[in-house]
Amino acid sequence: MMAGHYHLLIRNGICVLPWGEVAADVGVRNGRIAGIGALAAATADEVIDARHLHVLPGLIDPHVHLREPGDASVETIATGTKAAVLGGLTAVFDMPNTAPAVTDAQTLAWKQDFVARTAWCDMGLYVGATKANVGALAALETAAGACAIKVFAGSSTGDLLVEDDASLERVMRAGRRRIAYHSEDEYRLQARRTLFAAGAPYATHMLWRDVECAFLGTRRIVALARATGRPAHLLHVSTAEELNYITDHRDLCTVEVLVNHLTQVAPDAYERLGGYAVMNPPLRDRRHLEAAWAAVRDGTVDTVGSDHAPHSRAAKERPWPACAAGLTGVQTLVPVMLDHVNAGRLSLPRLVDLLCAGPARVYGAVGKGRLAAGYDADVTLVDLRAVRRIEESWIVSPCGWTPFAGMRVTGWPVATILRGRAVMRDDAVTGAPRGRLVQFR
Ligand code: DOR
Ligand code: ZN
């Protein structure tokens, strides 16, 4: 039995370790995990009793849009990371399609400063590629806190776009780390837009940005990644066709699917939610949802994200296609995924693989993603038996809405511990914003 003194002891929980679920105590010293095992003889400044709880490595949402700099009336880094820790996350990776976009050292420095001053959880920052900043990308991708270069090969919210093969290849030949792609095909998007009249039902969104838009775009990226040898992370893969195709390209490609595509299905979602179901790539029919779950089960999927993309209610309620695309989700990712665990759709260790080890592996996050001695003491405590209803009143993003309002879930995060300090307990934040930039290799 290990004795000694710890700053924090998490006692009596079931730990999800990389090698399995183990009943163990976790001891923390100086913000890092210092012991895992039977620590009954140890002393500590602070003890958290995790009886009846599962002790998970700090959960990571690798895909959020926190909008700063931009429109503080829908989201900021302060509010979005508060939502993250209330939802059981210890790190989020934030997209660059802000206003202005993060495409140069100056804007990145500006954002690094927001993180240092206001973030409740740790953060990684994407840098947007443009046709004009190719020469700067090699330096930008290794800047402090940079998790990856992000390429919008198809247009979405904001004006970031690199759509043609020659420009994409130039981006791929600049730098060496894995690039993250929004891969919908811009040419097919533009061509099909004219087929549908303004004011058409919201479900038109998935007919416009159809399966072939996604599949064609992904084939284009994979072919160029193959030609250049540059590893690709395919964000929010949304079709059975892409998932099947990618299995032949796993030497180069990693895969993200979104909680939305695992949970919401057409036509039901469009009928219930109207504009609040519109996102890119779109929610699709059940065949694709089933394919996404099959890809979770067979290991095709590396990471699951929320693609938290807040917009004002007014923007979501405009008629199609003026309606803004994007759904909130950073606060609900963990509850919804725990509910899927409870329903038997994935195991708790697989959830940890997708929300901890997966993001750490794909992006090269240092000291994150597993409960192991010497790693950051980022921990999420979850109560798998808690039955709760997701209420809009619980949402702290200023935009104030969630597409999961009213959903009854089994499984809830009850504490979020960031580098050894609780930042959330029982649905309330504790302490002060202490988030830092994640280090990437
Ligand atoms: O639905 C989306 N919303 N897809 C994206 O690619 C961007 C995001 C946003 O920023 O609103
Ligand atoms: Zn996104």
What order do the helices and strands come in, and which of them pair?
Layout: E1 5-17, E2 20-29, E3 32-37, E4 43-49, E5 54-57, E6 59-64, H1 77-86, E7 89-94, H2 105-118, E8 122-128, H3 134-140, E9 146-152, H4 165-173, E10 179-182, H5 186-193, H6 204-208, H7 211-228, E11 232-234, H8 240-246, E12 253-258, H9 259-263, H10 268-273, H11 286-298, E13 303-305, H12 313-317, H13 333-342, H14 348-363, E14 379-389, E15 408-418, E16 421-425, E17 428-429
Parallel strand pairs: 1-4, 1-5, 6-7, 7-8, 8-9, 9-10, 10-11, 11-12, 12-13
Antiparallel strand pairs: 1-2, 2-3, 5-14, 14-15, 15-16, 16-17
Helix pairs in contact: 4-7, 7-8, 8-11
Zinc ion binds at residues 63, 65, 95, 307, 309.
In total, the number of domains comes to 2
CATH superfamily of the largest domain: Metal-dependent hydrolases
How many DSSP E strands?
A: 17
So how many helices?
14
- The computed structural class is alpha/beta
Q: What is the mean predicted local confidence, pLDDT?
A: 98
- Morphology call: globular
The low-pLDDT segments are none
Into which percentage range does the β-strand content fall?
Answer: 25-35%
CATH topology of the largest domain: TIM Barrel
Distance between the termini: 36 Å
The small-molecule ligands in this entry are: (4S)-2,6-dioxohexahydropyrimidine-4-carboxylic acid, zinc ion
Q: Can you tell me the CATH class of the largest domain?
A: Alpha Beta
Helix content: 25-40%
CATH architecture term of the largest domain: Alpha-Beta Barrel
Radius of gyration: 21 Å
Main β sheet profile: 9 strands, mixed
